[in-house]
Amino acid sequence: MASLPGLNGSLDQYDNDALESVELSGPHSVQLAGGSEWRVKVSNDSQMSLTVQEGIAEIFGTELAVAVSYRFQNTSFALHAVEDVVLEWTGTLVQQQIIGEKDTNALHVYNLHFALEKQRAAGSQGPRVLLVGKRASGKTSLAKTLSSYALKTRDQGPVVVNLDPQQCIYTPPGCLSATPISDLIDVQNNGWGHSTTSGATALHAKQPLVKSFGLERISRNREWYRVQLQQLATSLDARLAHDSALRRVGIVVDTPALRELGDGEDDNYDFSLIHEIVTLFHINAVVVCAPDDSLAVQLHRELPVETLTIVRLPTSSGVILNEDVQIRALQSGAIRDYFYGDPSTVLSPYAVGVECDAVTVWEPENVMSGSSEAPQARLKPVEVNASNLQHALVAISYAPRSAPPEDVVKSGILGFALILEVHDTRRRLRVLLPVPGLLPDNALILTESRYLE
Amino acid sequence: MDCKKVAQDFASILEELTCNSRPIITTLTKTAEENIACAQQLVDAIERRIERCVPNQKLYAFYVLDSICKNAGSPYTIYFSRNLAKLYKRTYLLVDNQTRSSLIRLFQTWLNHNQGSMGHRLFGQEALDAIEQFLVKASSFQLKKVSPPTVPGLLREIDKLTSLTKERASQNPQDPRLNTKILVLKQLKQELQRESLAPQALQEVQSQLRKIFSQEQQILRKQQQQQQNLQKTVYQSSNPMSASPSQEPTPTPADPGVIPLFGSTSASSSFFPNASNIVPPSDSSRQADRVQKLYGSLAKEGLIKPIPQQSIVRLESVLSKNIDESLKVTLPPLHLMRDILGDVKSHFAAYGLDILKAPNLQLCQKTIIDENPAVYQLKNLLYRYKPNKCSTCGKRFGTSDDEKKRERDHLDWHFRINKRIKGTSGSNGTSVKNIQSRNWYLGDDQWQQFNDEEIVSTTRSDNEPLTLAKLDAASVDDTFNHAASGQGLAAVADVSNLAKKRVVVPETSIDMSFQCPICRDDQSAVYDDDTGEWVWLNCIESQGKYFHATCFHEAASSAPQQALHQGLERLKGLAG
């Protein structure tokens, strides 16, 4: 397959040679036997679109419509052929591979889904699942698949809780979120789909609860992270308390890679945050995504096994390690999506000019900023100038501008704004808002994400 | 009248010719005379009739042929000449003796018929010659048959009968009657040889002998049929494709007297397929035996395998008999058939499945790892058990009434959404595009109260209010209800007043619509009956720009005074 013209490398597409690119984009046909998987990687600077011609194919549990073109960019995915599938694709792939049924973990995922489904059918309290694993062990893909299968079975998916600030699930980067999966996940969108918009979206939008952690690494302020966890868990509890349908489907909690939960060192895991998550979210099932049992054995020692079940889901052999470059690309893609939407849902953000004195910006304490003592869950003021704010993504809190930092910590967030430009001399800012109107007169919280259009 | 119709009528009258009916034959002859243009079709009709009707009616069709040729003449005579010999031979071989003589008499009239003074024969010379030759052969024995019985002839008959009886006796040695019969025959032979009997007496003996002979033949025929059937099954099982109908035993005439007992062997075997089956009887049974033996030995060697009851060969042999081109249906594409089959299979595989009763689904390591037949069944629930797949998004729907309603709503929703996404054309040709932006996230309180039905409902009307983030929430401690207090109500009242604001379309305006710089929606004008002018509803004018009154108010009221001016500045910049 490596000799296929489409696989000579993504850079070729940017050759100005027209003939070359025509040849590259010719439709290729792929036939998959039932049970097998087609794993592909699409680079950040090229596109690929595929059309299922016959058969049942799904991407992380979401079934694709037949004869409808799906477009992908900057992503890796596995297309699972439930039955024999014939598909056609055009565009450029960085790599592709067909995996036989024996080498996928689909069997185990189905087993897991129906085991969870049995719990859902048995009582009003659905399973509360925590996914744990190292980096690139397939946690997020599994969360997606489990949500989609639950949605297929009972028309209501679980609440997906994302505790990994590097992941962007219905949010820009730096967030923790809880999103009831009430309808199809958008397979084309790398952030699972859209949060609500003012207009029509091709698929039903989702309504996430978003907490802005704002730091790239949890280790930079674990206390701040814990505060966000607690707030998220409290609201989720309240939501589930009076939403019996959601309560019955339960929750699926996706966690950061294990080493992110510790001090960032490999193999010396700190399970205290896992412990806290288990308690806060009333976890009763822990699914360990790992190729062997060692991690599960460790967790057995660390967690209160009387109240929860720990199972290991064998890692799918083809999980692709997202490199840092790709993670960055995904994150900036998520910021772009938040303001401008994607090709299927184009959004119109709104740029406003603001006096520097008319904004108040806070930021969480950060281990990087030099203080010797461990950072607390506190906000400190940020001086409004170009070096601090240029191209920065800021969260707009619900707390008014004049509110004390303690109140800002406790408040939720309205959304995000992007500082397009800071004029130090004229003392003016240009701010991109997702919603037309003026910059709300609320406190802003600086994040570590930067985005240059 | 066109030929097709004539031929049809002609053929239907022919069908009625089941007896020798003078009027019908006359009618048909007249029709033929009047429709010489359709000669070919009429000839075809008669030939078909001769070929297809039951043997004892064939003669009448020949009379029609004869009558037409004699009265109408050319071109019928020419057309009939082509197949005449073949038709005549076939008919002759199938009919009884009486009919045969009628046919021969008919043929004699053809030979003697002179058309006018020209001396031409009625039919082509070749055809007549062929029939004559055939008749010479066929009648050589028939002539003998009608000659008075002679002693040597009777002796030959007795010999034949003896051999027949002997054969039977050899097959059934236990039957004492057969041996007696042989003895009687022997005596009779001696009797004949000894005395010279009067011709009448000889005739008596002959008729007696024939009776016995026919009885004997009937018994033998039965046996042979049994053997033939056996043979046939052997044939069919070894090569069913060759089991064409032609190999079926020819129906034997009801009257056993037809069988030419006393003909020369050569004549009987070449012209009478029946006779070849029966005389000499030992021949065919021996053949059957041989075939049987050969088959047995081949089977023993493993060279022939018995064909199982359900096999493609057998099916093919049955189907090939019934294949009718006109009934051939072009099948739908394979994947469609597979889809249907899959749906049906899934339905039955998952029907009545209860996950609570499914075994080995307790959440534990073993459940996750092991292959589980229950899960294999349950998987159907995710896919084809709900056979109706949305062609837009791939979402599946089941077959219950409730599910069908949901599917309809879902499809309607897609339709509405697509319309909105594509944008609709306004009355004045301007298109209203789906301009949208991200919503603010809900606050914790609002999110806790939120019901996702609001965003996923497909039956919700566009007018119902959506839960939007409350920008003016002064403090997060405020309860949800408290926030929507007096201020909110005032705003509502304001809004209803604002919507009433209108601007008369200025004469300088090029088109009848304006674009609101805030929401970028186009607003087209409406005719106001009261004032008799075109107006823009919900519109206010500010420094030469037109805004939606509601948008303008929203933008202005959500900002402090200073910000208002800034905002307006910005808006003007945008609009300009």
Can you give a write-up of this model?
The complex is a heterodimer of chains A (453) and B (576). Chain A is of the alpha+beta class and 453 residues long. Chain A folds into three domains: 5-102, Jelly Rolls; 105-313, 3-Layer(aba) Sandwich (Rossmann fold); 349-450, Elongation Factor Tu (Ef-tu), domain 3 (Beta Barrel). Chain A is built from eleven helices and 23 strands. In chain A, helix 2 (106-122) packs across helix 3. Chain A is globular and about 65 Å long. Chain B has helices at residues 3-15, 22-34, 39-52, 55-71, 76-94, 97-112, 125-146, 151-171, 176-194, 199-238, 265-271, 273-278, 281-301, 312-322, 334-350, 365-369, 373-382, 401-422, 444-449, 453-456, 480-483, 486-499, 549-557, 561-575; strands at residues 388-389, 396-397, 424-425, 431-432, 502-504, 513-515, 522-524, 526-528, 533-537, 539-542, 545-548. In chain B, the strands form five sheets. A three-stranded antiparallel beta sheet of chain B has the order 5-9-8, with no helix packed on it. In chain B, strands 1-2 form a two-stranded antiparallel sheet. A two-stranded antiparallel sheet of chain B has the order 3-4. The chains are: A alpha+beta (453), B mainly alpha (576). At the A-B interface, strand 4, helix 2, helix 3, helix 4 and strand 14 of A face helix 16, helix 17, helix 18, helix 19 and helix 20 of B. Chain B: It holds the Pfam family Pcf11_C. Chain B: Residues 2-139 form the CID domain. Chain B: This is LALA0S04e05798g1_1. Chain B: One of its GO terms (cellular component) is cytosol.
